[in-house]
Amino acid sequence: MKSSINRGLKNFKRRIGVNSFTLIELLVVIAIIAILAGMLLPALNRARQKAQDISCVSTMKQLGLACLQYSSDNSDYVMPTTKPYSGSQASGTLEIEWWTYYTPNFPGLWLDPYLKLTPYTNIGSVDSTLHCARYASMSPSQRGGNYGYGMNATFIGKDGKAFKHANYRKLTRLRHPSSLIYITESNTARQFDATTIFESKSGYSALQFRHNAAINVAYTDGHVNTRKMAGFPTDYYSKDWNKDAK
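Now predict its structure.
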């Protein structure tokens, strides 16, 4: 075995014009390469995560713009989380009644006119054309659910088979459009409010702070920013969560 390695090294040295090249030297070179790779991989991972963060912000901006277009085409009303249609039931919410769902069976519903969507998927899911790249890179167990994005439940628009008119608001009538959270990142819920962000001390959150303990948020005025988990607003009646806040 040793003699075959030495013969191989001699042939290699002859080809590259090196007169003296030992096995120990070769191992040293391999070790140096391994050390350099170990130093570079974390930087490459950080660069990849940064690219994913930027991609998610871009996707959220597309959603925010599409929602503004929806308002423009619907008498200035903010798009709700849910709304009834002719097949609505007295209890529960059908897939078609959620803001995230797209089906070509109901063309023009929700954000269909403004975005290129994948049929029979939810916006934010890994199967949709619009999802968070970081969310898609996670394993199913890390994702913890199938919904990558959710909406503030202050805009819930369905009450059984009827519209919940009390929750419908015109965009121009909102007092704090630049502060009011509209769409952000989730995994198990397509709508949520401040009471489901952190439940007691369990650590559970309806929101998923997947960008290094931060989350991207689209506001009702269409702008997007990134907010840290530490200090994230949890007051149900605040201008961050409640459309009727003073």
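The chain is about 30% helix and 10% strand.
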